[in-house]
Structure formats: C-alpha cells, structure tokens
Design goal:
Layout: H1 2-17, E1 24-27, H2 47-51, E2 60-64, E3 68-69, E4 73-74, E5 85-90, E6 97-99, E7 101-103, E8 108-111, E9 114-118, E10 131-132, E11 135-136, E12 138-139, E13 150-154, E14 157-161, E15 174-177, E16 183-184, E17 191-193, E18 197-199
Parallel strand pairs: 1-2, 2-5, 3-6, 4-16, 5-17, 6-18, 12-13
Antiparallel strand pairs: 7-15, 8-9, 9-14, 10-11, 10-15, 13-14
Length: about 200
C-alpha cells in the first residue's frame, strides 16, 4: 500500500509540473501581495512580489491592462524549451505599463516647504527630471533658487518644493527616472513576454 501511495504521489508531481498543470498568476494595482495571486479576485499588487517568487516552466504571470507599475521586473525563474514562462496581460483596455520611474515615498523636511531625500538611481550621475503627479517640475541649480513647483539635485540628495507646498510623501506621487530597462531577464531563459508596454522618459 505504501509503495502504491509513493508511485501515485510521484505521478501527481509529474502531472503538476506538466503543461496544462501549471499555474496562472495575476497582478493588479488594486491587488494585495498577501493574496495568493492565482485568481482574478485575488491578484498580487506589486512587481516586487513577482521578483521574490519562484515559478515553474509553463507558468503564466499576467498583468492587468490599464495599470502602471513604477518598478522593474527581474525575472526570477526560467522556463524550458517548448514550455516557457509566459509574461503577458489580462483584462481589457491599454496594455499594462512598466516604467523606468521610481516613486519616492520617503521624504524628510529640509526647510520651510522644501523636502529632501537620498536619490535612488541605477544609472548613476545626476537626476535630470522629477514629476509631481505626472507633471514635470522645474529644475533649479540649488536650494537657494527654489520656489513652489521646483526641485534640485545636489550630490546624492534631491530637494523638492511642491506646487502646493505640501509633504510629497503623503499628498502626491513624486517620481523620477532611475533605470535603463523595465525588464531584467537576470540570466534566465525560455521567457516569453507579450503585451507589456515599457514607458521610458526622455533624459
């Protein structure tokens, strides 16, 4: 009986990993990384969750159309020949967007209505653009030249004075370009990507 159970378990494991027995994962801005990600009603929320997960050949990772992620996808697993891991879209509307932008959420008060943060960039060098709710703010040379709706980058620190003089970490979405690529295949192979739109900002 134990031998029969062991054989049955092995067969189930083979079938589970075979084409047709793979998993579909959903990702949506309105999801939760605490969910299982395996149904339309329980999608994951972030690309970071995908990056930290493991997948098997034939798995599908589908991103909700109409949604945007300011994150980089770092493919965590490989497929196999004839049975790739599929990265694509679901739902209706515009294709999902991966941007090269970083959303800065942690800010410290510098002076008056000026807030500061440490710049985060994979590209190195100076940050050349910064956006408040998708609108480009005016770049100035230093904090002494700042007015409402402006910002500057001094060594490794970004300073910003929003148009309404509020805290950028609580009232607005503040982003700036940080990466050259929206998807990093990370040395993985047999990956199929379709219906994903990479949005780049002119530097």
């Amino acid at each position: 009986m134990k031998l029969y159970q062991s054989i049955l378990l092995c067969l189930l494991l083979v079938l589970w990993r075979a084409p047709g027995f793979c998993s579909v994962y959903y990702v949506a801005n309105a999801g939760s990384d605490l969910a299982n990600g395996q149904s339309l009603s329980t999608p994951w929320q972030t690309i970071a969750k995908v990056n930290a997960s493991a997948f098997v050949a034939g798995d599908q990772i589908l991103f909700n159309r109409g949604d945007t992620w300011n994150e980089k996808l770092i493919v965590p697993s490989s497929g196999v020949s004839g049975n790739p891991i599929i990265i694509s879209a679901y739902g209706s509307g515009a294709n999902p967007i991966f941007t090269q932008l970083h959303q800065q959420t942690s800010w410290a008060l510098y002076s008056g209505a000026i807030y500061k943060c440490t710049a985060s960039t994979e590209m190195g060098g100076e940050v050349r653009q910064l956006f408040q709710d998708g609108v480009r703010l005016k770049k100035v040379a230093n904090t002494g030249a700042m007015v409402a709706g402006s910002w500057c980058h001094v060594t490794t620190t970004i300073y910003v004075w929003l148009t309404d003089s509020s805290n950028p970490g609580t009232n607005h979405v503040v982003t700036y370009p940080v990466r050259k690529h929206c998807i990093d295949f990370n040395g993985k192979s047999y990956i199929t990507v379709s219906y994903i739109y990479g949005k780049y900002t002119i530097l």
